[in-house]
Specification:
The complex is a heterodimer. Chain A is mainly α. Chain A has 2 domains: 131 residues, no CATH class; 42 residues. By secondary structure, chain B is mainly α. Chain B has 2 domains: 97 residues, no CATH class; 80 residues, no CATH class. The longest helix of chain B is centred in the middle third of the chain and has 44 residues. Chain B is flat. Classes of the chains: A mainly alpha, B mainly alpha. At the A-B interface, α1, α2, α3, α4 and α5 of A face α1, α3, α4, α5 and α6 of B.
């Protein structure tokens, strides 16, 4: 019971503060997962990667984390919790006629929250990579993926599948 | 876009049933690979071109509204459209249908993964994946930087957050809140500045 409550509370928070799109939730998820020691760095990597190869939003990584922590009930609760704030806030925005304040709110988000989110994603990349990236071939993957995604706009799902294949190949050669 | 008038013959926005919306959202949830702006095209072709549930202007207004809320842009947009068409019940049912395909797929993959995670080859594949995700995050940072205004204020806010996060491990949620505060102050400053100078200045 307690763990389900913790999951729901964590993912509600993640849902509420993930301004700037699905990727903005990744640093928040990482911080919650790390704080509760729910997943190892590699398992967190898998959670995010699975969110990329499935259709639907990035935030679906919540399902994986919930499942790992507390089985199906955990998966259901984490997923419901991470999407509830979006629905609630969209409802309120529609209700409160905040459209008239659209320029001010967008201005505040873009000038205040967006720079913070960019910094947070960079921090997440560092804190995910530091304990998990040890070997030369992993370092090579980091650079290659970043370059392909930036310059070639290669689909994230394909890149993730490629990394998995390279990793499996390295493991197979090694053992 | 008045959807509350129950006029069956209204030309502009034929009110679809909850079931219609849910079914269409399920389709988007199954085909919507790539996330974000890639899925925006799919949503546009399904809802604006094919179903004609809203017009071009309505779609753009809704997208702008969605960018104000936290969370995935596509989920926000689709939730708002569903709400306009059928109220809370449609919004919840349709969003659940949107997420369902990914949810089921993730559960299956997670089950497989947890059963095999101690296998050395799977372990090594995980190492590859994690490295790949680090690379993706760097690419996301690069892409998002383009959306941040080239303004000294944003630079100061971003570097402060980076410093607080790296040096003091400040909880990201606090940093987001501080960012919101910084944004609010910026809006106030901009308002005062515009009033004093008399001319509108857009940044």
């Amino acid at each position: 019971m307690n763990i389900l409550y913790e999951l729901a509370y964590s993912f509600l928070k993640i849902g509420f503060f993930g301004f700037g799109g699905g990727f903005a939730m990744i640093p928040l998820m990482h911080s919650e997962v790390y704080r509760h020691a729910w997943l190892s760095s590699e398992q967190f990597g898998v959670a995010i990667a699975l969110g990329q190869v499935t259709p639907g939003p990035v935030a679906i990584s919540a399902t994986f984390i919930g499942y790992k922590v507390a089985g199906f009930a955990g998966a259901f609760l984490a997923t419901a919790a991470v999407f509830t704030p979006s629905l609630l806030i969209m409802y309120l925005l529609d209700r409160l006629y905040l459209k008239e304040r659209k320029n001010e709110i967008t201005h505040a988000i873009v000038h205040g929250i967006l720079p913070v989110i960019v910094a947070l994603i960079l921090i997440a990349a560092v804190s995910l990579g530091r304990p998990a990236v040890h070997s030369w071939w992993q370092a090579l993957i980091v650079v290659t993926v970043a370059l392909l995604a930036i310059t070639r706009k290669t689909s994230y799902g394909l890149l993730v599948l490629g990394c998995m294949a390279v990793g499996a190949l390295m493991g197979w050669l090694h053992y | 876009m008045r959807t509350n008038d129950d006029e069956p013959g209204a030309n502009e926005s034929p009110n679809p049933t909850t079931w219609n919306v849910t079914r269409t959202y399920f389709k988007i949830g199954t085909l919507g690979f790539g996330g974000g702006y890639a899925v925006l095209d799919l949503i546009h072709s399904e809802l604006v071109v094919k179903q004609r549930w809203l017009d071009e202007q309505g779609f753009q207004d809704m997208t702008a509204l969605s960018e104000m809320a936290p969370g995935a842009l596509t989920v926000n947009l689709l939730a708002a459209i569903a709400y306009r068409m059928g109220g809370i019940r449609t919004m919840i049912a349709a969003t659940a249908a949107l997420i369902l395909p990914s949810f089921v797929l993730i559960i299956v993959l997670a089950g497989l993964f947890l059963a095999w995670q101690d296998n050395p080859v799977v372990k090594s594949a995980m190492k590859g994946l994690t490295a790949g995700v680090v690379g993706l995050l760097i690419a996301v940072v690069w892409d998002m930087l383009k959306g941040v205004p080239k303004h000294w204020y944003c630079l100061v806010v971003g570097i402060t957050a980076l410093f607080l996060g790296l040096a003091f491990s400040v909880n990201p949620i606090w940093l987001v809140l501080l960012g919101g505060l910084a944004g609010g102050i910026k809006v106030l400053l901009a308002a005062v500045f515009t009033r004093n100078s008399g001319a509108g200045r857009s940044t």
